């Protein structure tokens, strides 16, 4: 009798991935120490963590901190814990099955279903790129006075940056990303030092409050934070780039790779949590406590930091970190776009063509809104892009949880019972919150 479709094993043949052809595998020392082996696996987690600290996060965290103080810190924490679990599953799929999530979907689902999933994923990538376009344009405007509309157009230049970095190798990209993350971390450490947040209200904010669900305005931003934190395209990306490590393709080799890659992922995401929490804490300590609760966008935050904190360095550090954040996220968005298109459709485009298409899709709405509505319109579009990301999340999470829980597909590496329950619980929570948001958006 033929196996149930949901539980059937992978096909024997597997579609190759151009990223693995472009980037030679990073060697893993066979008899090295724990530290040496771990350092060989460090990198993919940082690339994933970038998606959790992009300009979209800034918009939702600033709005949440200014309006509701430290209350939404719990949402950032819970979202980050969700992310750690889901990215672990993504790592497991890539290492054990040697497939990225897009290839796994193509193996399993009907072509029509795959096409729909691909469309949803492309929408998510476009929404993410929209946030990066707006974030970079705002940073250029704040630091150099370049008009928003021109800043949006200038972001096309990063197509050439991507091409240059891809020609240098995967480790080079990881090093650049790590350096930019360090800049962001230092900037916000300095901002927190200046803002002097209250410790006890901050700790209380880590405990979930019922008001987050009952207050529609708070729920809207909370789901925006969820969409900005757990990004659907990151699940596709991570399952691919973990395969750039040259670990032994044996059961023992996969177990070791899974251990180190998951550690890399979890530590990187905890760093992302610290940065996201720092943005909301600075916003709450600087704006909410001073009565500036209507600060809802990055521009307002930048303008008020200097008078409220008493130094122009606060605003400069803020702007530099924002620019670094936008450029960092550009790298991962491009890689994810290649993986998704190749995995679902087996279509290979030159990196610059793929990047240009994605960027143009993002630039058009950003340019129209920046010209017609200026700063306020782009800020609202930035938050809305994160809600779109959250709405697409279920279509990536459900297949991932389903595949990694299948004994036929994953063998002894299939999710244990406790992990299955946890993963499905996270999926259901995400689905329910998004359905509730949809209802509140259509029928407020």
From TrEMBL:
NCBIfam families: nramp, Nramp_1, PRK00701.1. InterPro entries: NRAMP_fam. The keyword Nucleotide-binding does not apply. Keywords: Cell membrane, Ion transport, Membrane, Symport, Transmembrane, Transmembrane helix, Transport. H(+)-stimulated, divalent metal cation uptake system. It is found in: Cell membrane; Membrane. The chain crosses the membrane at residues 38-55, 67-91, 112-138, 144-165, 172-193, 218-237, 258-282, 302-324, 356-375, 381-405, 417-438. It comes from the Bacteria. Belongs to the NRAMP family. This is Divalent metal cation transporter MntH. HAMAP family: NRAMP (MF_00221). One of its GO terms (biological process) is iron ion transmembrane transport. The keyword Nucleus does not apply. One of its GO terms (molecular function) is manganese ion transmembrane transporter activity. GO terms for cellular component: plasma membrane. It comes from Epilithonimonas arachidiradicis. It is a multi-pass membrane protein.
